[in-house]
Design goal:
Elements: H1 3-17, E1 19-21, H2 22-29, H3 33-45, E2 49-52, E3 55-58, H4 68-71, H5 76-87, E4 95-98, H6 102-111, E5 117-120, H7 123-131, E6 135-138, E7 142-144, E8 149-151, H8 153-160, E9 164-169, E10 173-175, E11 179-182, H9 185-196, E12 198-204, E13 216-219, E14 225-228, H10 233-237, E15 245-247
Parallel strand pairs: 4-5, 4-9, 5-6, 9-12, 12-14, 14-15
Antiparallel strand pairs: 1-3, 2-3, 7-8, 10-11, 11-13
Helix pairs in contact: 1-3, 5-6, 6-7, 8-9
């Protein structure tokens, strides 16, 4: 078997199971242990995996958080495509939660003219919503300077009193094993409450968020719909049948 074929088998197994056993690779490829060990060393040097006793595990890094100003300048066209698709799911008379985040912010112009009530924890979101004459509630609490998100115990208490037709959430990482993750524990708490109190919940995310892991887990990937494009096949395979992926065109 060619080296490239062995490497593909190793990486495909890691994508599915997060860990590979040396003996399983020997059996599957018909190669010697020394050959597979060399393959694992090569792939480790390339940053694809981390060798462990008896095999290897998938390599990943915990991502840091960008400032709101930096987020809004990245992948802007992709975010607008996703935002337009997400806004199409909002109907007149809906009460929606719009999470702080750059992609949820891009939804707002597409909501103009709809007869809805929007609850948000994003300070820039509330400003633009009011500019467009959309009925808005900005929850109270502490403002996180980096993301302009309202967080903390006061905001959590207020959020628990609300019920939503739909919730649209920003996220920093989407991973089949670690689920939806974000860098901040208090922002994660707001997202969890929104999911619990919404009839339907959607994560809006561009392709850069897939296979990324941040510090705090929000929920499993089957707990929300995903509005994105080019969703990796391993993510789709791990979703429950009841979970919808709305892929932006």
């Amino acid at each position: 078997m060619l080296t490239e074929e062995r490497h593909k088998i190793i990486l495909d197994t890691l994508a599915k199971d997060n860990i590979v056993k040396l003996q399983d690779l020997v059996d599957e490829t018909g190669s010697s242990e020394s050959t597979i060990r060399r393959d694992l060393s090569t792939l480790e040097e390339a940053g694809f995996l981390i060798r462990v006793h008896g095999g290897a595990k998938r390599n990943y890094s915990v991502s840091a958080e960008d400032r709101m100003e930096d987020k809004t300048s990245k992948n802007i066209q992709d975010k607008q495509r996703i935002a337009e698709k997400a806004a199409q799911l909002v109907s007149d008379q809906d009460i929606i939660f719009l999470d702080a985040g750059s992609t949820t912010y891009e939804m707002i112009p597409f909501l103009k003219g709809k007869s809805i009530l929007v609850v948000t924890n994003g300070v820039p979101h509330a400003s633009l919503l009011s500019d467009l004459q959309l009925e808005t509630i900005l929850i109270g609490g502490k403002i996180k300077m980096e993301t302009k998100a309202v967080i903390g115990p006061v905001s959590q208490m207020q959020m628990r009193n609300y019920r939503f037709s739909k919730a649209f959430l920003g996220i920093n990482g989407i991973d089949k094993q670690y689920g939806f993750t974000t860098p901040d524990t208090e922002e994660a708490a707001i997202k969890r409450i929104a999911i619990e109190n919404a009839a339907q919940s959607y994560v809006v995310a561009d392709a850069s968020k897939f296979k990324q892991v941040s510090f705090v887990k929000v929920c499993d990937i089957e707990d929300c719909g995903i509005i994105s494009y080019n969703v990796p096949s391993e993510i789709k395979r791990n979703l429950k049948d009841s979970t919808t992926i709305w892929e932006a065109e």
